[in-house]
Design a protein that fits this description.
The chain is an alpha/beta fold. The protein contains twelve helices and nine strands. The termini are close together.
């Protein structure tokens, strides 16, 4: 299986886990109805890449960005551009949350220019102690106590919490802690950790160390044959990659009206996927 296929499946897993477990962990109780696109084609010249979007039962999108560098006002303007174009193409309200990692002590989340004020919902992780959480969960495992759903959600977010350790150390430590846990939820935590590793790990050797940890887990063994994909609830069977490829095709063919309609009309989106032969399942994935 190619690395691209691995990443597609991991990101699909991460999207589902983020919606179901991480949102409540962050105090966001809004119910998600579907995943949203994460790429916005603009005149086929520029691609805007967003971290996560979700379409909710309130008929609006939640847009999430992880901010690990102190880009200040420039990053805020970039998020504003994402939100403005997303709102323009979907015709839906878009609420942007920026998750500031423990590296950023004074996040910038509001700008006034002319007669306008743009503001995101900031979620600062600096006061959440990853080291304390990790030690507490290690003690629970030593006592044979099961890890709760909230424990697992916290573990998945340790790479962006406050800590005296590097992000790489936290990711590897969390993966080691969770690798032998039974059940499906820990495998989703591993997928989250891998997604963070792709974002934060700069040394290929560190990423390979993480792959070695994962290789003997259920996630690594399945990565992820059709049985894993079929286990998702209805509504999560549409991969992010399919939607992004459809958006790109529509832009290349100058079908902007169809693109705009497809982002809010799921039945029409499915029709377009079939038209471009993007609705067909990919070839069966070999077991790793």
């Amino acid at each position: 299986m190619s690395r691209k296929n691995h990443e597609d499946i991991i990101m699909k897993t991460v999207h589902g886990y983020f919606a179901r477990d991480i949102l409540p962990f962050l105090g966001i109780q809004e119910q998600v109805a579907d995943i949203g696109p994460t790429e916005i084609p603009i005149l086929a010249l520029t691609q805007m890449y967003m971290d996560f979007t979700f379409f909710t039962k309130k008929d609006r999108y939640l847009h999430f960005e992880f901010q690990s560098t102190d880009g200040g006002i420039d990053d805020l303007r970039r998020f504003h551009a994402y939100e403005a174009w997303f709102h323009y193409t979907t015709g839906k309200d878009v609420i942007t949350y920026v998750i500031f990692t423990g590296d950023i002590e004074k996040p910038v989340y509001e700008e006034t220019y002319g007669i306008n004020t743009y503001r995101v919902h900031p979620i600062s992780m600096i006061r959440k102690d990853a080291d304390e959480l990790m030690e507490r969960l290690k003690r629970k495992k030593e006592k044979g106590e099961p890890l709760t759903r909230e424990d697992l959600a916290g573990l998945a977010m340790t790479p962006v919490m406050g800590s005296k350790k590097s992000k790489t150390e936290r990711i590897l430590e969390a993966a080691q802690l969770i690798r032998d846990e039974p059940g499906e939820a820990p495998q989703k935590v591993l997928a989250m950790l891998y997604a963070f590793a792709e974002k934060f790990m700069n040394d290929p050797k560190d990423l390979e160390r993480l792959r070695e940890v994962m290789r003997m887990t259920r996630l690594g063994q399945m990565l992820f044959d059709e049985g894993w994909d079929q286990g998702w609830d209805q509504g999560w069977d549409q991969s992010r990659d399919q939607i992004n490829r459809l958006n790109t095709k529509l832009m290349e063919d100058d079908r902007l009206d169809d693109l705009k309609r497809s982002l809010s009309d799921k039945d029409y989106q499915q029709k377009l996927l079939a038209e471009y032969h993007l609705d067909r399942p990919q070839e069966s994935r070999a077991r790793v």
